Amino acid sequence: MPAFSRFLRYFMAVGRLGSIRKAADELNISASAIDRQILNVEADIGMPLFERLPTGLRLTAAGEIMMAAGTRWQKNLTDVRAQIEDLRGLKRGHVDIAIIDALAKGYIPNAIRAIQSRYPGITIGVRVLENDKVRQAIADGEVDFGILFEPQSYRDLTVRSFVEVVLGFLTPAGHPFGDRREARFSACAGSPLIVPAEPLAVCQQIAVLEGTTGLQIDRTVTSDNIQMITSLVLQGVGIGILTSLDVITEVQRGLLSFTRISDTVLRPMTLALCTATARTSSYAAGIVLGEIESGFAQLSYPASIERNDI
């Protein structure tokens, strides 16, 4: 094990930097020692791990596989160390989570603040990713857990908690449209719209609405960024279309109004807190997961949205 761990340290540094010399400088190890370790393993597996180019070293297909294995090994070693500290009664360790963009404000930052206050020995890394990349990060063991839309079709994930969110129209406070609790999709006909673009998860639902109603909507602005859409609505550029999850903070502050799109063809979207089925959480990850799970219900619709009656 020590020899293998030494090789992986050397190999991953070379793979990341593309140079044995640069890896040697970073690790404070002689370049010949690193080169010898890599050559020994290449001889053992009977395949090269790097292409030797005039400009440096580039991973081969076998090298890519080894790099992925090394990443998992490093994460597993971190978990083992955290579990050993658990045996000593220490509430410390590092936890990595992945979330979609809609959660980069409001609930998750507030939850992390509370966790840091109660467990100062636990550090947290937060990755904000596209929906499918959150799923992949969980399944590959790159993070301890994650939050994403529509996870039920993925066998490699275990759903720990879930809520339902809905699609709706977004308007500035005081806008007449915002007085409605619900409205049909056709109610936006003739209005300038600010519409999500790929890879945002709601694009598919908007496509379904357009297909079933035959409505040609006025896409005044499209954006793949939730904050941009929210800001444009606040500026009065047009009516936005987002989920109830996307605008919790602004609605609760009275800055925006949310009107649910009531067409029966739509179904609520499932937002889920997930772990990898094959992964055992460290004690620190269990603490953070439990804290976030305990308040997860507040992200649901209508709990998250203060609605106006007609």
Automatic annotation (TrEMBL):
Lineage: superkingdom: Bacteria
Record flagged with keyword Hydrolase: no
SUPFAM superfamilies named among the record's database cross-references: Periplasmic binding protein-like II, Winged helix' DNA-binding domain
Chain ranges passing through the membrane: none
Transcription regulation keyword on record: yes
Stored InterPro entries: HTH-type_LysR_regulators, LysR_HTH_N, LysR_subst-bd, WH-like_DNA-bd_sf, WH_DNA-bd_sf
Keyword terms: DNA-binding, Transcription, Transcription regulation
Residue ranges of domain HTH lysR-type in the record: 8-60
Family: Belongs to the LysR transcriptional regulatory family.
Annotated protein name in UniProt: LysR family transcriptional regulator
